[in-house]
Amino acid sequence: MAGGPEWPDGGTSAGVGPSGRAVRQTARVDISARVDYAVRAMLILAEADAEGSGPISIDSLSTRQELPRKFLEAIFADLRRSDLVLSRRGARGGYVLGRPREQISVGDIFRAVDGPLAEVRGLRPHETEYHGVATHLPSLWVAVRASLREVLDETSIEDLRTGDLPDRVRQLLTAPDAWQNR
């Protein structure tokens, strides 16, 4: 047990709480490298679309945001399967957006490359069921998913590209502790 006590799902603790007991420290909303890279690449395609500059190659996408080419190829296979991008063949080929940039949400991209926005032990929040004192916990998990949807599904890649974020997102950004770690 070099990494600390093992938890039921195989994770280990990263610290000790005030009682001397192990405290599990993990990120709760994990924005994976796949999502980060996909959103960054989609922003490049949105910019190209706005400028009318045509398809962008994987090599160009990779270079512009310093993204690993092979990883980006796998991500674009997922984006293509979700109809978020279209591939164009030929010497001047590459990728273009699969629909208008105002109609592609960050949530669409997230789901295309990483699956559902929120899961609890591999279940969708509304599929969880608890007994006793935890009976109402599924309601909280559903609310967490709803808050993610509110931000990610209401923000298009065009909003993100221009910085003209939805009002609710701007409100969240101005909360007193929004930019603080906790």
TrEMBL record:
Gene3D superfamilies: Winged helix-like DNA-binding domain superfamily/Winged helix DNA-binding domain. This is Rrf2 family transcriptional regulator. Pfam families: Rrf2. Residues 1-21 are annotated as: Disordered. InterPro entries: Tscrpt_reg_Rrf2, WH-like_DNA-bd_sf, WH_DNA-bd_sf. Keywords: DNA-binding. The keyword Cell wall biogenesis/degradation does not apply. The keyword DNA-binding applies.
